[in-house]
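FW: tagging you since you asked about this chain on Friday. Here's the raw sequence from the shared folder, copied in full. Didn't touch anything.
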Amino acid sequence: MKILSNNFRQAQPYQKIKYFAVFVLLLTPLIICILCFKSPNYSGKHVAINHSTMFNTDVIGTSILFTAFFIEFLLLLLHKPDKKVVKDIAANFSIGICTILVGVFEKGAAFSLYSLMYAFAIFKPHPDWWLWIAAFFSCDFIHYIYHRLGHKTRLFWAAHVTHHSSKHFNLSTGLRTNSIHVFYRFIFWSPLCILGIPPEMILFIESITASQNFLVHTENIGKLGVLDWVFNTPSNHRVHHGSNPEYIDKNLGGILMIYDHLFGTYAKETTLPVYGITHNIDTCNPVKILLHEYILMSKELSAIKGFMVRLRYLFSRPQ
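HL: got it, structure written out here
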């Protein structure tokens, strides 16, 4: 069955080109960050980053995100949206601000841990172009593993469900991220430092990934042909947020879809996604959005006897 119509799906070719151009232009500043930052400590062929670079990247990325968010929100208001949509966006915005504030402290904790792990690295190659490529694919792989655990285990789903619980799909959904997982998420990337990837490089790539992942939360950009097969595009991410049986736990990649293809979790957008979760919470209360799954999990866990049984419950598949 074909996807049902929206503005993009009914658009003429020139309109499709416009949507694609918008997508590319949003990513251009981030791509420039990757290509243009060079360290004065190395020859021209070595590309490194420092604290100033990371800070500038975060500022650029955050500025792009909020600019895109407010433009979309203002355009949405012109169409007089349903009050539920506006309330949902307001809740997402408040949750996003909280996560960004927590993320400032998380960056410091992450850098401290990564630096400690890097001190015991097996080897420490110069930050040459090949190391950037290795770091990019490694970070994207860790992102896939972490994201998959967020869908396959109750323990990590309790935080990740916040991002999926909205029944709407727009840029504000990209802000709807549980700040609780920020306190432990970075630990999954720390083993890369033992393998010789510098802490700054990991944090830089993760900032780029986070910015790109925000921008794919839109229905205003349709399918992009071969790019959908390679990258995490709006079409692929709409599938990821769908509660349709054929879409659940699909398209878990960060920037690339390569690991979804390798591990059988890739799905094309063939039918209109039904956004939300299988048991929708129907609330715009930020506290309930953040904690509802933790509350349910704690109630069920309290009724379970035995340490090993509880442990198996925490790593069992979410209902």
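FW: DSSP finds 13 helices and no strands in the chain.
HL: agreed, and Residues 1-11, 36-46 have pLDDT under 50 and may be disordered.
FW: great, closing this out.
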